[in-house]
Amino acid sequence: MKVIHVTPSYKPAYTYGGPTVSISSLCEALVENHCEIHVLTTTANGKNRLAESQSPKLVDGVPVRYFKSLIAGNIHISLKLLWQLRLELRKSKVVVHIHSWWNATSIFSCIIAKHLKRKVILSPRGMLTAYSFNNRHKLLKW
Phi, psi at residue 137, to the nearest 5°? Predict the structure, then answer.
């Protein structure tokens, strides 16, 4: 089974803390156990951006493709990433593992996958806690 991991940020974007560490650790463990995976992510890295990659590059053994974020900062939206996901889902039956939730890339990735009748795994990474609902952007969450 092939799994595409979609995340708004990936190693070395440690500015986002724990999720970057846990997602990369999960992906590295899956690769070590001979699972067929790859990561689609944005170039988001706080006020800076990571380099965009035209093809997957190995990051500690994990194939990762970085797509340019439309806006620097915490917006995390990449139309190129969404287009690439759509292309990959149309050509093969894969599972989509979405990490994170309250951002456009994750939400639209889920919509694309469900539209194409692909299985989706959602790991919200603490984003469904009371703290998340009660602090920051309350209107976007209802």
Answer: 55, 45
